[in-house]
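ugh ok fine here u go
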Amino acid sequence: MNERELKRSLLGVAPPDELGAQRRSWQLVRTAFDEREPTPWPKRHANSLIGIAAAVGLLAAVLSPPGRAVISDVRDAIGKDKVVGVTQAKPALFSLPAPGRVLVSAPTGAWVVEADGSKRRLGDYDAASWSPQGLHAVVTKQSQLVAVTPRGQVRWTLARPRVHDARWAPSGFRIAYLSGGNLRVVAGDKTGDKRLDAAARVAPAWRPGEQHVLAYATPGGRIAVRDTDSERTLWSARVRAAPAQLEWSADAQRLLAAVPLSESRFALTVYDGSGRRLQSLALPGAFVDAAFAPDGHGIALVRRQADRSELLLVDGDLLRSQEQVFTGQGAFRDVAWSPSGGWLLLGWQSADQWLFFRSTDVEKIKAVSSLAVQFDPGGTGAGEFPRIEGWCCGE
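structure:
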């Protein structure tokens, strides 16, 4: 047999499972092509667009860790602004992955989302916060503080100028709120409303427990922790700038202050229950949101760096101990824990999606799209992305 005959014979031999390999390759490429985001484009660029969509989809499928939704957006690759988000997201919120109810504020008002996915509009309010056990919510509207039930029934109203950032105490017997530059406290039945102190524009944070102890930021650059019944200041600490957020751990042993240092840096500072500063860590990026887990000192942290955002799990006892949960293009907004801490809910504003992460297995993601439309029934959904105000009760 000469060389030509040998070559002809080898070419006639089919590789093992050649047909199966062809089918699998075609299915992968076809899936990537079908999941592309169609973008109007001149016909002369059609072939390039299809090639980019297929290539980006194929790379995402091959290179992403199993179950991790790190999604490349075709239109980002060619200079567009819209973020596609997680593919195969559900078109509507059919149910929550865990028991409880989510409180939401949107341009159309305050809403309650039940565990089965049903939604109820509480009224035309700007912001909202749960009471303990979710029996009521305190909502605000310009010059009114209002207590409502989860069905939207008004229990009482209180007129005050420029009301915002109302928070219900864990005992259920006090509500703290800001009225212009003043911090005020009122009983849960609307009685005994009083001014407590001047305050910076930062939501106050009640310390867990039956005592009515409140952390807030003063205009003079301090964090103050005060017993609102006796009006005695328990401790205070100086900060370099007004905190963006104050947050207590569930066991009342840690107070987290997130302090912006510049447009591209912020600091996390942790105090113990007596006011001793335990640690402080400067981080790159812009601070967005943080939430202590319902148990322990774990912190869900959202930050933004340039054109990307990131969700991290941070150890509140060792701030340098961090785990990345998710990163994506554009802006993330709010993060909330389910009542038992089994799930995290993240608002992805740029993608118009909610993402649910099983907190003990961050590879598990459930995504829901079109949130702006869902909280704007009959409208265009062109308004502001809905804000997650809390996930309460039921586990």
